[in-house]
Amino acid sequence: MTWTENIATFESRLPWWGGDLQTIRNQVMRRGADLSAWVLQRLAFVLPDGSGDQMLGVLQVPDGLARRPLAMLLHGLTGCEESYYVRVTARMLLDAGYPVLRLNQRGAGPSRKTCQGSTHAGRSEDVAAVLEQLPEQLPKDLLRNGMVAVGFSLGGNILLKYLGESGLAAAVRGAVSVSAPIDLAAAARRFHAPRNWLYHRWILARIKIEATRPAAALTAQERATIRAAPTVRAFDDNFLGPRHGFAGADEYYARCSAAPGLGNISVPTLLIHARNDPWIPADAYDHTDVSGNSMLSLQLPDGGGHLGFHDRFGKPTWHDRCTLSFLDSLSA
Predict the structure, then answer these.
(1) CA separation for the pair 76, 70 (Å, rounded)
(2) Most buried residue among 151, 225, 243, 292 by CB atoms closer than 10 A?
(3) Within this chain, do residues 234 and 217 fall inside the same structural domain, yes or no?
């Protein structure tokens, strides 16, 4: 029996019909998962690029035992360890016996105070650095079943990029991406469409706040450039791209998109995306030759929105049930 035989076809449920309502549901229904039953251990990962930046994560282990692989969760743009979707997935995995590491990417959430720099869509080297350091920081028995990873939205693109670059050397047994913008240029065009002006205004304000928090090492000119950016693309073109060595937004999008490297992924990987995602078009997934790489599995339902997938079965969400079934199949 394959893992997909345990999962029903996605069907939206009242009142979360359509991609927009599926997407905003996590913002209007903010009752986060209760994780207080598991002891928290704070971990710090020094990034080896000479910046002095440290990415922070929080580890929780069911009953102090590791019966399943350690699951690392990577949040999306302007997210952190406390993001609603991260906590909900963490709760599901902990209940199922998986140790969980909720990682704060460079400059995000608690990592902002320990990082002068910030993450971007292509920072796969940060993921590689964390995975390399984990065996030194954890008891050996905690990794006796290996590791898996789940990436959400921009975190999904970073994770997939890491897997494509690493090939057989990837430090995880398997991975899942949810609503990942694997073609950044296409995602930027969709995000800047007139119908998405409210989303765009909201996320632009959030990325400006995150980028300019006090710990960020920025010149006065860079802060002025960030404040003046009228769009996310202008932010990427005038600040984020040049700041990280790209000529501008176009080069940043081209070099950091995960799609070109998917054929090189050499560990079992599940890609989940909704055709009605209002932020990220499905074209890049349609053009992905999953059949050409036996390591890739694709779930591309018509509905679900962005990080939504709230269906008639309630909790866990459809994408979380897919995630758990897929990861369980790796152990089996």
Answers:
(1) 20
(2) 151
(3) yes
